[in-house]
Amino acid sequence: MFQIEEELKKLPAKPGVYIMHGEADEIIYVGKAISLKNRVRQYFQSSRNKGPKIEQMVTHITRFEYIITDSELEALVLESNLIKEHRPKYNTMLKDDKSYPFIKVTVQEAYPRVLFARRMKKDKNRYFGPYTSGGAVKDVIELVRKLYQVRSCSRNLPRDTGKERPCLYYHMKQCTAPCQGKITPEEYKKNIQQVIRFLNGDFKETIDELTEKMQQASDDLRFEEAMEYRDLIQSIRKIGERQKITSYGEDDRDVIAVAMDESLDLREQDAVVQVFFVRDGKLIGRDHFYLRVARGDTKEQVLSSFLKQFYAGTPFIPGEIMLQKEIEDAEIIEEWLTSRRKQKVRIRVPKKGTKEKLVELAEENAKMVLNKDRERIKREEGRTIGAVHEVEEWLGLKGITRMEAYDISNISGFESVGSMVVYEKGRPKRSDYRKFKIKWVQGPNDYASMEEVLTRRFTHESNGEFDSFSRKPDLLLMDGGRGQVNIALRVLENLGLDIPVCGMVKDDHHRTRGLYFRNEEIPVDTSSEGFHLITRIQDEAHRFAIEYHRSLRSKEQVHSLLDDIPGIGETRRKALMRRFKSLENIRDASLEELARTESMNAGSARQVYDFFRKSSPSSGEHVDETF
Q: How many domains, in total, are found in the chain?
């Protein structure tokens, strides 16, 4: 369980984006922070005046997560991407859909230009950004024109070469005048390659050169010129913090990195794989996966294994997958993914530029998750796998992975239903839960109903490897003692199955006090994780049952129950519901009260009265929905 107070202590003092989740695990708010540690804590401090909207939001937060970035500017644009993608309930949604500027290099032209662009289009040009400061973008465009003397005009070259005089920029030595043929396309493109390297972040030499010129101008008392150099340096540094998590290409890609825990365990170690989802050039989400890997496994081996498992189960496969390490079987995995996607898939390990920095950011986030959640992972293992080991010790069994628990309930002695819940490695596997509407048994006979449920479960024909009935349990847990266990053992014996069966013996408050196994009651430590696991399974079986119990009490279901009473047609059924409002009130009514109801007579009243007296409810049990 996510403990907010404990997780607040683990927040890093780094810039990033925080994501708040609500009761249904939906994203309800996204925000950015210079320091995640300081900002997120403020939401949960009672002394702060947060305003009514935030006060209300905080009451719905069940957990939070975060993505660290290298700067607040990166966090700002990532926040914008996530808000547009998820549209959280408590975020203010801008109707004008504000966009951030890009720098466009028109590389498809013979003499490319460097331009300011509001949007990234699907063309053959190179885009850099987006950036949070339009002014800084304009300064950098002006700077690269000065440094590399690239043109800014809109002339169609080389078609218009020599038709007009060179512009003022040529005379200011800020353009090489390709319009006059004073530079060849090959020489000009060398300058453009320098511009692209600069925009990719390789501008240390330029900053050093400008710093030297600024210092020289200052020493010569040319302060205005020195201030110009200073402003240019600041613009370059600001542009250097551009949003690396939004790339200049519009392709879909997944960015994957792994972090491994160098623990002292001699056999296994913890690992976390972080996946960034980039769609249409924007990072719109991420997910992380916990792994337990063998001691000695390399990151390359972990990444290779993860790719095969992850993309075997995900419906969407991007055109590019970026990894932090080269993997040995990259070509065969590419071929496999290409066949699944029906389009080319490339696996790449970027070595420089924004893509390399994006992979590094994924790795840094993986390390953060691993370090932050190390204690929680160990606690969770104690609650799950550790608890299963305790149950194994109590029962003298080994290798328990899958446990199935069953329960029988009915409503007013009617609509008997069986429920089946599944736990694997101590965790609920809800996709394998099943519900059975009793078909062969009339009336509230729990033992006969359980026999029917188990017989149908273990004789059901599987529809494939992903059918919940395709796997047999390592342990059956019955929500009852000796009687339920014996029913299960008889069914398994008749079907020739050898599966251990354990009963959950309850006290007077319907809480588990021990286990019934192999004809004896086994006491358990009520403070142990194993006991808590058994209790959770029992509660889950009842919860799963209660949901269907409520659905059966809907108006339509109640009416259908009254239809089963001889002599009660649509007119009398409606009259009963108008007067008594609920099935419970009808059941508790006296014979005289029933007879006084509109459209009822002594004979029909006796039919209703006797129907409910003959079908009394079972001992407090409830059921769920049908299979």
A: 5
Reported in sequence order, the residue ranges of 218-281 that DSSP labels E, i.e. its strands, are 253-260, 268-279
Q: Which regions in the chain score pLDDT beneath 70?
A: 1, 47-49, 92-100, 129-133, 136, 238-250, 262-268, 280, 292, 294-296, 313-315, 373-378, 411-415, 443, 461-468, 510, 548-561, 614-627
Q: What is the pTM of this model?
A: 0.40
Token readout for 163 is 């038709």
> Where a domain ends, among 522, 551, 580?
551
Looking at the fold, whether 470 and 490 belong to one and the same domain comes out as: yes
105-150 per-position pLDDT tens digit? 998 888 999 998 877 777 788 887 666 567 767 877 887 887 788 8
Q: How many Cβ atoms are within 10 Å of 24's Cβ, its own excluded?
A: 8
The string of DSSP letters for 412-446 reads TTEEEEEEEEEEETTEE-GGG-EEEE--S--SS-H
CA distance 405 to 537: 7
| Cβ–Cβ < 8 Å for 598, 575 | yes
Alpha-carbon distance of 154 to 539, in angstroms, equals 72
DSSP summary character for residue 180: G
- C-alpha to C-alpha distances, 190 to 81, 111, 157, 182, 197, nearest whole angstrom: 35, 11, 17, 15, 11
- Domain residue limits at 27: 4-86
Residue 140 corresponds to which amino acid?
A: V
DSSP state of 246: B
Distance CA 81, CA 120 (A): 14
| Phi, psi at 95, each rounded to 5° | -80, -20
Q: Which residues pair with 411 in a beta bridge?
A: 414
